[in-house]
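The data are quoted verbatim for reference:
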Amino acid sequence: MIENAIQKRKIFEEVIKNGKYLFVYPILSVFLSKKTNNENHLSINLIGTLVKKKFLKKSVHRNRIKRLLKASFLLNKSMIEKYVINKNYYYIIFIYKAFYLPEFININESVIKIFNKIIKNYC
């Protein structure tokens, strides 16, 4: 299990409800930052992944896409960490929106573009 995963349903729903939506084909991302008052916490990035059963019927394919999204996030999270202000939580949910199995290169390019948009617009 990834240590940066959003595990609570309440947080997941809050991000979907209050977050900023960015779309770079084939990934829709929902981004939310929250300030914390506790000085002991460092900035934390948390990720969630979502692949709908409607788009890909086999769980093997959905799990593969989730692994690719998590791997791409882990490779590129240093891009966002440079701009993170202390005492902030950053929640990012990646929602896969295509009907085909992607290559890692395509997923990685989309995640990099999403991070660049987040840095440009919200940091």
About this structure: The radius of gyration is 14 Å. Helices lie at 9-18, 59-81, 104-122. The chain has a mean pLDDT of 86.
